[in-house]
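Checklist before submission:
- one chain only
- standard amino acids only
- sequence pasted in full

Submission:
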Amino acid sequence: MTTMFASTTRRTPATGKRRICFPITSRAYYGRSQLLLQKLQEHPGVELELMLGGSVMLDKYSRHIADDIEAGGFTISTSLFNVIEGGNHVAMAKTACLTALEFTNGFHAADPDIVVICGDRFEQLAIAMAAAYLNKTIAHIEGGDVTGSIDESVRHAITKLAHLHFVTNDDAHRRVLAMGEDPKYVFTTGSLDVEVASMVSTEITSAVVNSYGVGHEIDVAQPFLLVIQHPVTTEHDNRRHLEDTLRAVSALDMPAIWIWPNPDAGTGEMADSLRHFRENVPEAVKKMRFITDVPVNEFIALLKVTSCLVGNSSAGIKECSYLGTPVVNIGARQQGRLHADNVAHAAYDAAEILAAVRDQLARGRYAPSHIYHRPGASQSMVDVLASVELYTQKRFYESPDAVLKAARG
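Returned file contents:
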């Protein structure tokens, strides 16, 4: 069954260009999207609007991010303060509500043709909702992936609000179609994160690493671990889970860089636990350095040279697959996600985590995987964003095969 859409190639009257709004709510989103943003900025038919909000407005998570963005040649059109701090579920829910209010005002003022949404974070769902009610065409990057927390529900909800879909792999493409999306608006482009990782040539130095954060000085020329463990918002014992990881890493007795948890519900108890060990059990963290904020080029450089990434970050699944970095993925946050051979899984158990890390250290680096890599991911997205016919009224797309199957009973 073919569905007809009311389409338009609307251009911003004053400039004749298509106005594309890109909300940036974390340093990670900015870092992984830099190539896409540069190409949109340079496109003669596009007027790029950057809106800042979320954790990038908090110095403790994204120090000097506005300066970095402007140094990259971009203009920030709007900065929105939409975060209610607290690191718990109430704060997270209220932040989503405030995000919808603030970005509604921002979209109403900017009047973009397209709003580009990344991933599965809760504030991105609120942004997508605001854009949908303002009849904006929504482009969603990284739909169709599966993960082991409420992030998966958020990701799929954004898919149902979005009009254009840029997915990272064939399995994700299939899932987006299964949700009733029109195939002509679903594009398998690969991962922006991996495209950036494939192009970064920065070399990290010990002096740079030790200029960030607090704790033990790290010699990046020697073996070290990189630990990134974020809260899982659907679980209620994030503190214990983090402490299992901390005990395992401490037992390895090797230097470790620990990236501070992101500001999702549960981060408060995790941060309290890290501070407790740092201040009251110094022997447990004697070889650890704690960092809250690392620019993307330096982050990729760390992924390239670390002996093993430990935790539950998507960087272990995507960027590290291409880089061949050994990973121990802990718990349910990335459960079910497509991954390469470089990923070993461990439950929330210190002994199991310790054994898995030791196995990965003994194994060493892996051959690069291309499961998330497609050359020119950002250019593929730009080509679509700059030229595709826009529409706002969605219909559930019934594939001809599904209709025929139903008719046959």
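Reviewer check: The radius of gyration is 21 Å.
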